[in-house]
Design brief:
Elements (H helix, E strand, L loop, with lengths): L1 H5 L7 H14 L7 H9 L6 H13 L8 H18 L25 H13 L10 H13 L1 H5 L1
Helix pairs in contact: 2-4, 2-6, 3-4, 4-5, 4-6, 5-7
Length: 156
């Protein structure tokens, strides 16, 4: 699984890579040392690849292992996610990042911004009862980041 993340140009589409990232994060809940989750949370920071970063970070926050104080990780993720939504939510009309949105002629699936990636992650991983509870901190973090980014107000 980590080889798919390390070599993200290996022909796999972004959805597969995002799913591998999330699976790795959920599996980290079973590590012998809870600090390994922090290591994984920060492992791909320098990559700048959203379809690896976001699922790993959100997966670590949602994986159910509470042996570690995740408050600092959640605060870091809230700030990072809000920034990603402001810069590249996936709406060319409101994104601060001048880079063009991905997608189009290429047959390989690519997410069209951070909001598209968040939609996939929440639909695939956070809607299940074994992960999502009525007081899900991860889901609250996502909603708070979307609200802080004001991306929905901008497109209205």
């Amino acid at each position: 699984m980590t080889s798919a993340l390390t070599d993200s140009t290996n022909g796999l589409n972004q959805k597969v890579i995002a799913n591998c990232s999330a699976a790795l994060a959920f599996l980290s809940a079973h590590s012998a040392d809870p600090k390994q989750m922090v290591t994984l949370f920060n492992a791909y920071n320098d990559s700048g690849i959203d379809h690896i970063l976001l699922p790993i970070k959100l997966g670590v926050l949602a994986n159910g292992n509470e042996k570690l104080d995740k408050a600092p990780l959640a605060a870091e993720m809230l700030s990072s996610l809000t920034e990603k939504l402001v810069d590249g939510a996936g709406f060319s009309e409101v994104d601060d990042d001048p880079a063009p949105l991905v997608g189009g002629d290429d047959e390989t699936f690519k997410f069209k911004g951070a909001l598209d990636l968040l939609s996939h992650f929440t639909n695939s991983f956070l809607r299940h009862d074994f992960v999502n509870t009525p007081s899900s901190k991860c889901l609250e973090l996502i909603v708070e980041a979307v609200n802080k980014s004001e991306v929905m107000k901008k497109i209205a």
